[in-house]
Specification:
Blueprint lengths: L16 E3 L8 H6 L12 E6 L5 E2 L4 E9 L6 E6 L3 E2 L6 E5 L8 E5 L2 E5 L3 E8 L6 E8 L5 E5 L2 E4 L5 E8 L6 E7 L7 E2 L6 E5 L4 E9 L6 E8 L28 E4 L21 E5 L10 E2 L3 E3 L9 E6 L8 E3 L17 E5 L17 E6 L2 E3 L6 E2 L8 E2 L5 E5 L2 E7 L2 E3 L3 E5 L10 E7 L2 E3 L12 E3 L2 E6 L2 E3 L8 E5 L2 E6 L2 E2 L5 E5 L11 H5 L5 H4 L7 H10 L2 E5 L2 E3 L7 E3 L13 E5 L2 E4 L9 E6 L15 E5 L2 E4 L6 E5 L5 E4 L3 E3 L29 H4 E2 L5 E3 L33 E2 L7 E2 L11
Amino acid sequence: MNRHPHYARRFGFFILLTLVMCSKSSSMNARAASGAIDAATSAPISIAITQPAYGFNVLPGSIRRIYAAVTNGKTNAVSWSVTGGATLSSRTGNWIDVTAPAVGSSCSINGDEKSYTVTSSARFKLTASSQENPGATASILINVCKAVVQVDVVPFYATLYSEQKADIQAFVWGSANRNVTWKITSQPSGGDGKIDDTGNEDTAFSASVAGRYTLTATSLADPSQANTATVYVTGHKMPYQVTLSKTMPVDCTVDPALSGESIDVGPSQKHKTIQSVPWPSLKPGSTVRIHNEDTSGTSPTTYHEYFQLTTQAARTQPVRVCGVPDSSGNLPVIDAGDSTGRSDVSSYSAGYAAIGIGATGWAGPYVGAKWNGPQYLIVEGLKVQNAKPAITYTTPSGVARTAWNRAAACVRLFRSMDTAVRGIDAYNCGNGLMSDFNAGNGFAAVANTLYEGNHLHNNGVAGSYLDHQFYIQGWNEVAQFNIVDQYQSGAQGSNFKGRGFPEVVRYNYFGDGAARQLDMIDNQDAGPYTTFEGYLGGSKPFHSTYPKDTYTADLLGAAAEAHHGDYVYGNTFVNSTAGVPIHYSTDHGSLEDDRIGTLWFYNNSFYEPTCNGCPNWRWSMFDTSGGGGNDFPEIEWPQIQAFNNAIWLGAPTKPYFSWNREANQFTSLGKNVINSSWGTGKMSGGDGTGLANATSKYAFQGAGNNADTAGIANLIGVSTPPFDLTTFAPMPSLINTGTSMPVSGPNLPVRFQYGPTAIQKVRKQLLTIGAME
């Protein structure tokens, strides 16, 4: 990611390891009798199974798609077998899905700084053999690590108006079973809290009676593991559905259960400036309220100041920074232009963030489960602007007219856990909202982050493809109810660039103008804590560089499992400049850190007025190739599951629409609606296929549309738009006509609808095709 050079320790990419165990007969006649090619004129048949450098290390019940390649064969057909309690999806094919046994045992790392191995007493053996020469076989051993379950809840804390709905998400790590049960475990006297359901990965909560409510999510895989969200309901009616900045309204009422200091900032307040707030010494449970005291409605109070929030607060005693708007909903403004900050703001935050959340610099190794960095922090209800090149500020040491860094962000997360960025109007910055889990300096984690109800617009840098409206990298990321539009003219980046996992992107509006709508790619900077390659590989492995680090193989196994699913649903898109709007893969070729799992893309509405940015004669909805036209070796290839989406092409002629950019993409299509004529009137696609035939030289053996795309027959053609092209309201015939998700899919129902008006609405017809009802 773009970051200060202090963070620049990078891990090299590692060579893909294939284990080849070929058993050959010594008899030429026996080989000829078995159908092998005559060794006198050609090399013998061999076979290899693709696996990571340190093998597959999975959790009980994990599913991995594993590939084999036959060399010197004619048909290259493969047979599979397994021992040790695992199960296979098939006994033949160039790839198979293998499900690990239900019980594992702790994985361990063995070796020294030159060579490591990973082992477990629970393992199974997978064997592939050539059908032409059954004597040519390859086998690998797959470790089944111990399930070390952890539950996180996003957001950890929220302040709501009376009857305001909140979508609260649980993340389960350390188990292939992500499911939880929800329960309201405490509420005020006379409390009337309600949750929509109790058995999904998320739930929706609301209440009218003022007071604190506690929601508890308990893992089904390990009921001893649970976590909570605290919701403070103010009892006030929401004054308007959306602010004048097109952000979610935020009630800055101070929760009386908070034990810290309440500080008000504004021209008539005790604290006249943001710098006068004692940021480094804020105690848990503190609230800082920044006021817009303008009464004209035309000139909001503007603070030419930047600040950094670094408190390690508590789960039920967070530190909250809240913007108090005027009576019409005009937000107070944090303007990075000609701004100043406290002398104790980190030099790695100043110049890089108008609002910095978390600590910078050396983080230290992971030792046990205790997090010693900033945590439980909330920033909401502010307009933040003008942190970008050509705009200047005064450094913490007093150097005036210093230009903001190109990669500067309106709000940037450094090392921080459990953070909420909510109701922010992020305008005219290099990056709108940004985060960076950068492990080069130890366990500098960013995790459990909510980005909700924000308006990101006019962000990016003209001429640069490195800057974006969203640019985030962390664990357990939720982006919901955001408006992302009016991308900076002349800039070449994305509306949403995500390098974290798992990512839940729901109920957002993505406007036109960006080079990509969603760019969900490799985790660039956190490899030591996300992959065995990053932790054990390279010329000087992280594990040997930091010997006090106690991050275990079981925790690495949990991270690998969490990296196998991302969720994009209930969003609306307008796109005419991105030839491949949804990129789900890699742009560095990071092997285990690439997108190696499944993108669940459902109930989205996508409007393509035309495609000014399409190359040649085709535009593709999904791109699972490497970025920038490159391709890289892979261990596993991404899978796309597309259900209940509504797509309308304003000009269904050349460039033609296709579902994929390359043939080596697994695509499963449920019920989706699209123009009945994609350019030719054929439901199979604009140029007669609807599928790109290009194949990377790094594609898996046998990659092709016929084998790896399913569900073309499920597509529904329409001759008129399936939704209103302005509001995205659906065609009446599509209401409640969708299909349920596969049993293997996530337990994340479509609860809300959201679009360009930025008004959150409850969804009642859960199976309506598209994002709205």
